[in-house]
Amino acid sequence: MRKIFFIIQQKSALSLVDWDNLINEQDPEMILVLISEQGSIDSLGTQAKKSFTAIIELEQFEFVQAKQEMDKIFAQYYQMGDQSNIATLHEFQLELVAQLRDHYREAFNIQGPGIDVIQNFRNKLLMKKHLGPKGVKLPNYTEFDSEAYKHNPEAYLQSIEQLLGFPMFAKPVDSAGSLNTAFIQDTEALRAWSNKASESSHVYEIDEYIDGILFHCDSVVQNGQVQFTLVSQYLHPNADALSGKALATMTLNPGAEDYKRLKQFAEEALSHFPILPDGVTHLEVFKKTSNNELVFLEVAARAPGGVAPEMYQIRTGVDIRQLHLRLHLGLSIEDPIKQLHDQSKWGPFASMYQLVAPYHGGTISKLKPPVFHGGGYKIEWRCRENDIIKPASSIANVIVSTVFWNDDYDALEQDFRLLDQQQIVEIIPTQVYLLQEHFNRLETLGCTSTSYPPTFFSKRNLAIGAASMFSQISAQAANTLGPNSSVTTEVDPVMFLGLLVSSVAILVLIVYALYKVSPTPKDVNKDEEYLVPAQSFL
């Protein structure tokens, strides 16, 4: 019996998978098809391309396009009795893959979870509804009701404040990578966020803010049963990476009390889902600072992102990305499961960290390799000196990744704790963007005209407008003058003089607007507490 396997994966993640060793000689005859984005073929190595019977490039990941291409593959290769399946490693393709499974299930003997199962691991409200009644500790939370907010904004905001208290944390119910999340500190910030969220197409939940340490528990599931669970600790909650902190995690010692307790918590939580899909699950849980209580955050039906799988491979010798794919494709995982259970064959303790592009964007001025206390490391620079980088929209916008390891757990933990002090990347902020972002954040944090002098925000607008005009004038001048300021076209003296005078005037306005702003000392402190200075990204 042959197998026809489809792997749907974004181009950016193709290089993360060891395609050469995904299939081995003991596996049955198969037809392996990769469905990815345009340009994906060029991102694969020569040997990796040979792993696939066909590589299909889509203009965009959506059901109709994928179905059209899969119909062609089935028409060309499918024979009666063949077994088929579809897999992905990417959070945002889980629902597409589930829909395709449901569509083809009866006609082509497709295995694997459908959309009803996957939604329990995509929708944060649904997963909480399964776990709360079973006694799993959850944060206080609510679904944001746009209509209730529009009907009576003040009453609705008051009800949220009474339920959750400040601070609180808002996020889409079906997103990942800290995309479109918000830390909300007070009523003014909640009002500003609600104004935007009420006009959004996203469905949001708002959770109470949990002060504690965040862990992730990554479990291997086969035939609905957990076969093994790995536990790691984040240095900071993931969303903090968007404000300059290291996105880092470290494997825990299996003999540690936290490891045993978290493993039990995760496996119990997973047992409460009606159907537990085969593959690797990624569950996040807080340990509260106040009383060490464990609080469920969320779970995904996929392997962890970033370079966490590389960290686990150094520690255990098992590639959990491959493990996840092989489980979805119905292939044997006997050898890696044996490896996971035999800790005598494990490698050194391991950690990983990534730096995310800062919210202000900027120019990379210097790259400096990290320094660790013994052990080893490997690093991937995703930027070069003098590169201009855009502000990050999610924690997927990584500019450098590092995996490091050490046989000495205490030495590794010391390096892990000091990651924020490592000066790996120096960035010169984009000034106009930073100026705009500065004032936007003040407004979001409730620093409105009620707490600042009436002239403050008019001067803000003047500064931003002046900076914008200066940028446009500079661009016009650049178009008028050639490289190295040599004149390449005939220049109208009157126009050139106008540009020069305008530039000087705009610069004067910028200086005036910036240095005449005079919030009270109390407000300055409030500003400094929440605005991340450039050096925090170094």
From TrEMBL:
<keyword id="KW-0436">Ligase</keyword>
<dbReference type="Pfam" id="PF07478">
    <property type="entry name" value="Dala_Dala_lig_C"/>
</dbReference>
<dbReference type="InterPro" id="IPR052032">
    <property type="entry name" value="ATP-dep_AA_Ligase"/>
</dbReference>
<dbReference type="GO" id="GO:0046872">
    <property type="term" value="F:metal ion binding"/>
</dbReference>
<keyword id="KW-1133">Transmembrane helix</keyword>
<keyword id="KW-0067">ATP-binding</keyword>
<dbReference type="InterPro" id="IPR011095">
    <property type="entry name" value="Dala_Dala_lig_C"/>
</dbReference>
<feature type="domain" description="ATP-grasp">
    <location>
        <begin position="128"/>
        <end position="329"/>
    </location>
</feature>
<keyword id="KW-0547">Nucleotide-binding</keyword>
<dbReference type="InterPro" id="IPR011761">
    <property type="entry name" value="ATP-grasp"/>
</dbReference>
<keyword id="KW-0812">Transmembrane</keyword>
<dbReference type="InterPro" id="IPR013815">
    <property type="entry name" value="ATP_grasp_subdomain_1"/>
</dbReference>
<dbReference type="GO" id="GO:0008716">
    <property type="term" value="F:D-alanine-D-alanine ligase activity"/>
</dbReference>
<keyword id="KW-0472">Membrane</keyword>
<feature type="transmembrane region" description="Helical">
    <location>
        <begin position="494"/>
        <end position="515"/>
    </location>
</feature>
<protein>
    <submittedName>
        <fullName>Glutathione synthetase ATP-binding domain-like</fullName>
    </submittedName>
</protein>
<dbReference type="GO" id="GO:0005524">
    <property type="term" value="F:ATP binding"/>
</dbReference>
